[in-house]
Amino acid sequence: MSVADVAEKINPAVVTILNMQPLSQANSGSFTGVDGLPEIPGIGDLPGMPEAPSDNQGDNAPQTSQADDDQLVPIGSGSGFFADDLGHVITNAHVVNGAQKLSVSFDKQYDTTVYQAEIVWSVPEDDLALLKIRGERDFPAIPLGTSSDLMLGETVIAIGNPMGETHTVSQGIVSGLHRNANIQTQFGLLKFDDLIQTDASINPGN
């Protein structure tokens, strides 16, 4: 099966997750754009995305009321995928951290509905989260594999929605196994053990 065949099969189950929080938090400087990155052009085009706040309006900046401060605005977004047809979505904990509302959307060629999601569990120390979306249909799912029989040099394909661009695909190989890494995150210093190393390009948001 070619990379194109894999992408065609997997893409319908890959989604964009939008983290919505009160405007007051965005005005306080916590608005970070897509997946923790600075705000980028085009973020307002994501499904369900209201106009993002701007702190560069100078003396012309509008005054906000308490009601305005309670308005939900996008704090960030990331990718996820369906693990079963019941609506369970696997993503990263940092994507959904602090969310007051979570929106999940497909590429428009598969589904134009913007679904609401709830956090089933989130494990910051592993940077993993499981969501459940509300919907009255069976969802496309990606079967989970096993890493116990991986070999160096095997093909790796990364698919996601980096920076709001749907379905970016990159290819590489398994470069190493059982790697350890320390990464500074919004949760503090996380220590990951037994990682799989790959040279596939992992774009921010994938």
Structure description:
There is one protein chain. This protein is mainly β. The chain is 12% helix and 39% strand. The chain contains 4 helices and 9 strands, in the order αβααββαββββββ. It has helices at residues 3-10, 23-30, 66-69, 93-96; strands at residues 14-22, 72-82, 88-91, 101-105, 114-123, 128-133, 155-160, 168-185, 188-198. The protein has a 6-stranded antiparallel beta barrel with strand order 1-2-3-6-5-4. Strands 7-8-9 form a 3-stranded antiparallel sheet. The chain is globular and about 50 Å long. The relative contact order is 0.20.
What's the short story on this structure?
This protein is mostly beta strands and 206 residues long. The chain has helices at residues 3-10, 23-30, 66-69, 93-96, and strands spanning 14-22, 72-82, 88-91, 101-105, 114-123, 128-133, 155-160, 168-185, 188-198. Residues 29-66 have low confidence and may be disordered.
